[in-house]
Amino acid sequence: MTSNESQDQAAKTRARWLAAAGSLQRRVNFHHWLSRLLPVATAVCAVFACLLLWVRSEEMATQPWWGAFAVAMVLAAAGAVWLSRKSWISRDEALVRLESEHRLHNQLSAAQEGVMPWPEVPATLNDGFRLRYQRVLVPPAAAAVFLLAASLVYLPAKEVETPAPVAAPRAWEEAQRMIDQLKEEELFAQEQLEQYENKLDALRDQPQQEWYEHGSLEAGESLKSDMRNAVEETARNMEWAEQTLNEMQKEAEKDEGSLEELSPELQQATEGLEMGDLPLDQQTLQQLKQMAQSINPRELSQEQMEKLKQKLREGTQTCQNCLGEGQGLAEALRNAEQVRRKRPGEKGDEEGPPGGITRGPGHQPLALMQEPSDAENNRLEKVDNTDLSRATLGETQALEARQHRTDPSTYQGPTSAGQVEAKGSGGETVWRDSFTPEENQVLQKYFR
Amino acid sequence: MENELSDENLQTASTKLQQLRGELQNVLFGQELLIDLVIVGLLARGHLLLEGLPGLGKTELVKGLAKALQVEAKRVQFTPDLLPGDITGNPMLQEVDGRREFVFQKGPLFANLVLADEINRASPKTQSALLEAMQERRVTVMGQTHPLPPPFFVLATQNPIELEGTYPLPEAQLDRFLFKLEVNRNPVEVLERIIQHRELGAEPEVNAVMSGEELLGLMDLCRQIYLPPVVANYIARLVDATHEGRSKHAEHIKFGASPRAALALAAAGKARALLENRKNTSFEDVQALAPSVLGHRIVLDYTAKLEGMTARSLVAGLLEEVPTQDLEVPQTLQEAKMG
Questions:
Q1: What is the DSSP letter of B125?
Q2: Distance of residue A48 Cα from the nearest chain B Cα, in angstroms
Q3: Residue among A202, A193, A200 nearest A234 (CA)
Q4: CA distances (Å), origin A205, targets A17, A213, A220, A251, A421
Q5: A110 vs B332: CB contact, 8 Å cut-off?
Q6: DSSP symbol at A86
Q7: Which of B283, B282, B306, B310 is nearest to B298 (CA)?
Q8: Min distance A109 CA to chain B CA atoms (Å)
Q9: Would the CA dihedral through A131, A132, A134, A139 be positive or negative?
Q10: What residues in B contact A96, CB-CB < 8 Å?
Q11: CB contact under 8 A, A97 and B325
């Protein structure tokens, strides 16, 4: 081997040793960095997992947070570099590690200083380090579990807080509209209207979040319904009173003796207007009472009569406007009046029912609307009829203290408690509606 | 001999030392390690303390060494009544050119190899005189300084079983010895070989290997052996670990090794490298020599003695505890011993 070849060989050997030392240096330094990074990165992942859960629970976008997580990891990696730098080894130290592991009697250190020739590189280089799998794999696995759990765990949808309603319930608005319209007409008792308004204000004073709760809506609907009923009742009574006044005026011109019959009707209508849920103002009531008590309507001047009728007519119209049903209500009121006044088969106005198979008083009362409405199905109506011969179903006719009326035909003598009176034969209707004797009497009278 | 640490000189030195080793092994059977350590101590310019029972060949070793090196050797049997002047020499009143004057008569220390037999039997005063000469390599008598002839090499022996009437060497004086070597008894095979090849009273034949000047040349060459910084660092950490609180094993050590111990270890390491034909010392040299260099330089506490620990066992523990390289192992890696 020539001198040049020997030098080349020595240079190659040196290069191989230095490459091996460089590789070992990088490996050790990388693991120093990894040892610093893993705990910090695991902690960052755990914190971010908690943060991610919170972000998801708040239903916010997670993309920006993932970006922040990436930045945190980069910072952690940079911090690990900074912290691990003091533990990093140099290439010379790596050489010492190699010569120590291969028992080279520090020949590499001496060769690096030029004291000794570089020894031959063994077939397999061993740096004497072994990977600690548990330390390397457990922290990333834990971090991955944290992140996966935070990303995939099911979170219930967030409860959206109900915004405060902008507008009050419709029933309240309608009730307020009715009150406003009724207040414009000075015909009605302002005290009662203020009571309605106070009830409405009490509803409005509730927290806005509770406006549309079931109880609140029901109260509003109930208030509106009460007002509608009151307005309807008042409208009917005013219509009745006006009609009665018209007839009294006609009778007075004919000078017939039916004025005495009309006076109680006017009195009854006046009482309805006074005692109803929406009474008229005291002045109008006084005039009506005066009319009802006076047998001769001529005691009231024509002008006063017309003013009174006009006032009643305007009041009726106001009520109709309040109710918003226009012609339907007016027609119902007229039909009700006709039913009240005409007997079956009696000839009257052209609007009366004809004879023949269509004879009779016409449609059943309370079912005469052109268009049926479900809104008032549950309406409680006051049935008022002094003429028991014209009594309607369900009307309380009278209260009296007397002996019980029993049906002698069904009496079977004294029975002991617990005994079966009727064994039944099977297939019978166990429950059936039946009328009381009083109801039977009323029905018999009505349909006679 | 050229004192340059060339490959050729290294090879020549190695050859000479191997010859010396061979000659001494012919004198002392079955004590290869002891012979190597004696040669190492010689090259490192150190003095040795041999501890062992009588009749194990300590004197024969010195005689053989003197013959092989062709240097002057003297033996001093230390006794309690031995005076310092008995070993260093005394001024004698003599008539010179018609005048009477004191003429210094050199003692047995004025030799290249001195065997101080049973040194612990001499009084401390005499021991001190010997140890001062070992350290200073000169003797001062009546204001006159007399240098000892180079090379100057003392092999002292002491008997470990006879303590009555002895003066154990204090720690400060033990520190002057490079090595404290234990001469163990020979196994049966070695005894059989001794019986076959030796006769009582007959001295073995030893061939001369080198001269005293050549030995000095080897000593100079030894100083040029390269001591890598990592090895120096290892020596420093090892010596530091002998002090209390510096290592786990040091908790039983009352007094640790001195800086002289570190210097001795470095010098001995170089000598061992030269003996093994290397230009540099290594971790292995330090590990091989540490028990002999540090064993007599550390003082154990009472608990260690109660637990049966010896200085050598503690040094062995320190060698396991102190890594050769001050390298922090990453937490994700672990040491994997090579098979």
A1: H
A2: 24
A3: A193
A4: 90, 14, 13, 54, 60
A5: no
A6: G
A7: B310
A8: 7
A9: negative
A10: 228, 230, 325
A11: yes
Task: Decide if A45 contacts A146 (C-beta within 8 A).
Answer: yes
CA atoms within 13 A on the CB side of B254: 11
Smallest CA–CA distance from B229 into chain A, residue: A109
Report DSSP letters for A350-419, one per residue: TTSPPSGGG-SS-SPTT---SS--STTTT-------S-GGG--TT--------PPP--GGG------TT-
Select from A28, A96, A126 the Cβ nearest to the Cβ of B230: A96
- Say yes or no for a CB contact (<8 Å) between A106 and B228: yes
> What is d(CA B153, CA B69) in angstroms, rounded to the nearest whole number?
12
pLDDT in tens, B2-17: 567 777 888 888 888 8
Which tokens is B266 given?
Answer: 């470095």
Return left, alpha or beta for B103; rule: phi > 0 is left, psi -120 to 50 is alpha, else beta: beta
Residues in Cβ contact with A38 at an 8 Å cutoff, skipping those fewer than 6 apart: A135, A136, A139, A140, B332
> Residue written as tokens 């090259």?
B43
- Eight-state DSSP code of residue B323: -
pTM of the model: 0.61
A38 and B226 within 8 Å at the Cβ level: the answer is: no
Decide if A71 contacts A81 (C-beta within 8 A): no
pLDDT at A300: 60
Q: How far is B7 from chain A (nearest CA, A)?
A: 10
Residue numbers in A near B331 (CB within 8 A): 31, 35, 132, 135
CB within 8 A of A135, min separation 6: which ones? A35, A38, B331, B332
- Chain centre to alpha carbon of residue A302: 57
CA B43: distance to chain centroid? 10
Whether the complex's predicted ipTM surpasses the cut of 0.90: no
**Bridge partners, B89 (sequence order):** B106
For A147, A253, B15, B92, B294, the CA distances from B269, given in Å and listed in that order, are 57, 155, 19, 44, 13
- Using CB atoms and an 8 Å cut-off, which of residues 60-89 of chain A contact chain B? 87, 89
* Residues shown for chain B: 339
Q: Which helix (H) or strand (E) holds A43?
A: helix A3-57
pLDDT tens digits for A398-447?
666 676 666 666 656 666 666 655 555 666 555 556 778 888 888 888 88
What gap in Å lies between CA B150 and CA B304, rounded to an integer? 41
Q: Are strands B113-117 and B153-158 parallel, antiparallel or unpaired?
A: parallel
Give the three-state DSSP class for A282: helix
Yes or no: say if B204 and B198 are a contact pair by the CB < 8 Å rule.
Answer: yes
Contact of A125 with chain B, judged by CB distance below 8 Å, is answered with no
Q: Distance between CA B31 and CA B20 in Å, rounded?
A: 14
Q: What is the pLDDT of residue B239?
A: 93
Helix and strand counts by DSSP (H, E) for chain A = 13, 1
CA distance A146 to B279: 58
Q: Mean pLDDT in chain A?
A: 76
Q: Token match 């047995």: residue?
A: B108
Residues 129-158 of A with CB under 8 A from B: 129-132, 135-136
Residues of B in contact with A110 (CB under 8 A): 226, 228, 279-280
Q: Is the separation of the CB atoms in B52 and B242 below 8 Å?
A: no
Distances A65 to A144, A151, B222 between C-alpha atoms, Å: 16, 12, 68
**Nearest-CA neighbor of B52 among B185, B197, B235, B144?**
B185
The answer to whether the CB of B117 falls within 8 A of the CB of B74 is no
pLDDT at A375 over 60: no
The shortest CB-CB distance from A106 to any of B283, B331, B334 is to B283
